[in-house]
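Format is chain and fold; as here:
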Amino acid sequence: MTGKLFPDESVDLIYLDPPFNSAATYNVLFRAPDGKASDSQLEAFEDTWHWGAAAEATFDAVLSQVTHTNLAVLMRGIVAALGRNDMTAYLVMMAARMVELHRVLKPTGSLYLHCDPTASHYLKVVLDGVFGADNFRNEIVWKRSHAHSDGKQ
């Protein structure tokens, strides 16, 4: 376990709420002591993905995963079919993280992935490559009936 934060197969439940590939930049907004909105803000994270040196290096790392040969075949196919673009950069980044989540998740554990509908179909296939298609159990889909910024709801 040298250099690893969590031991192998030590986690019962994972809830994953990653960036959504929304192509937006999110900021942390600050409030004044009186509770009113302030003009002060910091960039929290940029939810945009681009194929570049980092994506290529992560892709190579995913392909070299000896214990995940199905994932390597799958990711080669996805990149070959879709090309080296923003979506595949996102999927490669997610695949690398899912490999680590698989390592720490107990065989009896569960993973819940909250994801954007523009990438969910790809992410399900990537999860199949990591965890095996026979391990998919179900999905939860909800429909928002009101704007989520409505404080009266």
Q: What stands out?
A: Helices lie at 53-63, 69-82, 86-104, 120-131. The chain has a mean pLDDT of 84. The beta strands are 11-16, 24-31, 37-47, 105-113.
